[in-house]
Design goal:
By secondary structure, the protein is mostly helical. The protein has 2 domains: 4-27 and 141-208, Endonuclease Iii, domain 2 (Orthogonal Bundle); 35-134, Orthogonal Bundle (Endonuclease III, domain 1). It has 11 helices and no strands. α2 packs antiparallel against α6 (88-105), α5 packs across α6 and α9 (145-153) packs across α11.
C-alpha cells in the first residue's frame, strides 16, 4: 500500500471527484433523521435493499410509532410486517429487543456515543458510525461492503476487514468529510464500481489502474 502521504493525496482527489459527481449524497434509508427509526431500519437492511426497507418501514412505524410501542409488540404481528425484508424471525426479534433497550434503559433516546451504542443488541461499529454521523453530527467511517470494496480498489486501503478499513480511512479522510464520503462511495458503487461487472470504461478513476479483484 502507498505511504500515508500518497494516500492522503489520492483521497483528496477521490473526494473532489465524488463531491462533484454526487453533491447531494445522503443516507438512502428514509428515516427522517430520527435516530430510533434509523437504528431499526439498519436491522431490516441486512440482505435486503434500502428501497424495500423504506417501503416496509412506512407500515412498520405507522403501527409502532415509538420505541415503547415496538418494545411491546406482538412478535407474530411484527414478523408479518417485516417478512418482505427477509430473515423476518431474527429481524423482528432484534427490532423488539433493541426497542426495549431504548425505551427502558435509555429513556426513549438513542445514545450518542460509540461506547453506549455498542451496548445495544446487534449494533456494531458500522451502524454506530452511521447513527453518530447522520443523526448526531459526529462523523465516522461507515465501513460497509461498498466502502470496503471501493476504497481497496482505489488504493486508499489494503484490507477487507471492516475495522481495519475504518482505521485506515480515518487516517486520510478529514473528520468533517467522513459521513458524506461514505454515502458518496455507496452512490458510486451502485452506479459505476459494482461488485460484479464494474463499469471501468466509464470510471473517473481509470488512471488508478485498479482491478475488480482488489
Amino acid at each position: 500500500m502507498m505511504n500515508i502521504k500518497k494516500r492522503k493525496a489520492r483521497a483528496e482527489q477521490v473526494m473532489a471527484v465524488l463531491k462533484d459527481r454526487y453533491p447531494d449524497s445522503d443516507c438512502t434509508l428514509e428515516s427522517g433523521k430520527d435516530a430510533w427509526k434509523l437504528l431499526e431500519m439498519t436491522r431490516l437492511a441486512a440482505q435486503c435493499t434500502d428501497k424495500r426497507v423504506n417501503e416496509v418501514s412506512i407500515g412498520l412505524f405507522r403501527k409502532y410509532p415509538t420505541p415503547e410501542s415496538m418494545a411491546n409488540a406482538d412478535i407474530c404481528e411484527l414478523e408479518e410486517i417485516v417478512r418482505p425484508c427477509g430473515l423476518y424471525h431474527m429481524k423482528a426479534k432484534d427490532l423488539r429487543e433493541s426497542s426495549r433497550q431504548i425505551a427502558y434503559e435509555y429513556g426513549g433516546r438513542v445514545p450518542d456515543t460509540m461506547e453506549e451504542l455498542l451496548k445495544l443488541s446487534g449494533v456494531g461499529r458500522k451502524i454506530a458510525n452511521l447513527i453518530l454521523g447522520d443523526i448526531y453530527g459526529k462523523p465516522g467511517i461507515v465501513s460497509d461492503t461498498h466502502c470496503i470494496r471501493i476504497s481497496k480498489r482505489l488504493g486508499l486501503t489494503d484490507t477487507t476487514d471492516p475495522r481495519k478499513n475504518e482505521e485506515q480511512l480515518s487516517e486520510i479522510i478529514p473528520v468533517e468529510e467522513r459521513a458524506v464520503f461514505c454515502h458518496r462511495l455507496v452512490d458510486f458503487g451502485r452506479e459505476i464500481c459494482r461488485a460484479a461487472h464494474p463499469l471501468c470504461d466509464g470510471c473517473p478513476f481509470r488512471e488508478f489502474n485498479c482491478t475488480k479483484e482488489k
